[in-house]
Amino acid sequence: MKKTIKNSGFKDWKPDQLEDLAGKIYLITGGNTGIGLQAAKMLAEKNADIVIACRNPQKAQAAMQEIQPLGTGKVETVTLDLSKLSSVRSAAEEIKQRYAKLDALINNAGVMQTPETRTEDEFELQIATNHLGHFLLTGLLFDLVEKAKGRIVVVSSIAHKFGKINFEDIMLEKDYTPSKAYTQSKLANLMFMLELDRRLQSSNSSVTTIGCHPGYSNTDLQSTGPKGLLNFIYKFSNTTIAQPSYNGAIPTVLCAAGKEAIAGAYYGPKAFGEMRGRISDADVRFLARNEAKAKKLWEVSEELVNFKWL
């Protein structure tokens, strides 16, 4: 089976290929740090308006101060905690009141390999933050993206290749490990993107959805989530193997604003096991291609967040 799902017609992509983005609005979850912050900066340099959505208002303000001088567009913030459905709903309502359209919703924020934690909705933290929060947010803001004939960007990971959706115990109450929960959530991200693309295509929607991964990039994810031995390993590998977060953000920017990006594609670096290097069509594990399981994941997600769309 072919490892990639699209042939986009280019072997590399760089941010200097972006056109001027004046008048376009990009909302980035987790845009206050790491991949999200670097993507926001690249878009801002092309004069886009940026909305930073994150749970810590102080960190959002600090990011705004970094981004604002880079271009002529506006930079604003909204408070959003993806692990709480109530926060997702209130943030979406605020966004709909403030903006008439979104040229791209960039589902970037995430947590990684955290100790077992239950949210206020009784969800496992990683599936709640990485997938379910974004699933609900995307549904609630879909009409704003549609008004712009815009894009929905889903950031997954090379870790999706090691994931499995445990439909019998999706919150992993019986068999939790930090890595099992993380890889499940990142597989869910990619399955969501591919299922969303199928639904958009079948409804002839003007909205485009595109996925990506950042390779192995040096961000706060590896230091704020993993504990013990994992944390120790990442302290070493982040300085010896990982690429800078700027490089890791390039696939996200391609998906959000690159004219070369195509609907339903999945992009990422191509060298060293897809950990770094030139940006092109990335590999998709066969489990992510399973349409029946992706449809089931969509239905389970709708039930868990109590919101049906498309």
Q: Can you give a write-up of this model?
A:
There is one protein chain. This protein is α/β, with parallel strands linked by helices and 310 residues long. It has helices spanning 34-45, 57-67, 85-98, 125-147, 178-202, 221-224, 228-240, 245-257, 291-305, and strands at 25-29, 49-54, 75-79, 104-107, 151-155, 208-212, 217-218, 243-244, 266-271, 276-281. It has an 8-stranded mixed beta sheet, sandwiched between helices. The protein has a two-stranded parallel sheet with strand order 7-8. The radius of gyration is 18 Å and the shape is globular. It starts with 24 loop residues before the first strand and ends in a 5-residue tail after the last helix. The model is unreliable at 232-237 (pLDDT under 50).
Summarize the structure.
By secondary structure, the protein is an alpha/beta fold. 42% of the residues lie in helices and 15% in strands. The chain has helices at residues 34-45, 57-67, 85-98, 125-147, 178-202, 221-224, 228-240, 245-257, 291-305; strands at 25-29, 49-54, 75-79, 104-107, 151-155, 208-212, 217-218, 243-244, 266-271, 276-281.
Tell me the CATH topology. Rossmann fold
Biggest β-sheet: strands ordered side by side in the sheet: 3-2-1-4-5-6-9-10
Looking at how many chains there are and whether they match, the oligomeric state comes to single chain
CATH superfamily: NAD(P)-binding Rossmann-like Domain
Which secondary-structure class do the elements indicate? alpha/beta
Residue stretches low in confidence (pLDDT < 50, at least 5 long) are 232-237
Alpha-carbon distance between the two ends: 30 Å
User: What value does the average pLDDT take?
Assistant: 93
User: How much helix is in the residues?
Assistant: 40-55%
